[in-house]
Predict the structure.
Amino acid sequence: MLQFGTELLGGERMRIGIYGGTFDPVHLGHLILAETVRESLSLDEVRFVPAFVNPHKQGRPVTPPKLRLEMLRFALVGNAGLRLSEIEIKRKGPSYTYETLEAITAEHPEAELFLVVGADSLDDFPKWRKPERILELATLVAVNRGREDPVIPPTVDQERVLLTSMPAIDISASEIRKRTQDGQSIRYLTPRAVELFIQANQLYLEPETEAP
């Protein structure tokens, strides 16, 4: 479909999914979640937005942004509906979602934004920085990853939240890091190119420790 700016032929608004996280490393669960949401909500694209510093997951050393970006580039090859955004990496500092959404809105004022999160993030969402502003800028898409049914907190505007689900795939970045450290296979947990990149750069071989 031909696109001009943020409007599609026929006057439809472009629908953009925003999927943030540390992605350390990106794995098949991330990709399946993004593709499931893209298809189920008829999104034009889902943008992976790796955090420079994730304010919700501080406490352990994180792989440098340059390497996490490279893994994402490998992972997204071949799917035009999944794209990489470096907006938070370039901004540096703690990556607050409302700031990212404001920047994307300024860039694409006519687009309709959908913020993609795991359903397990709903409980903590009211504690995020400026959650009301987030819901002004985007519809919150909470994805049930095969665990307990999600519950929308009473303080969150129900009309600004969509609940959807994906196949139950129990893969986590922490599991991949631990298996790599222990010398175990990570085949079929992450794209082959990402697996080879991890091996070539000797990532995740040191035990994880709390950041000072």
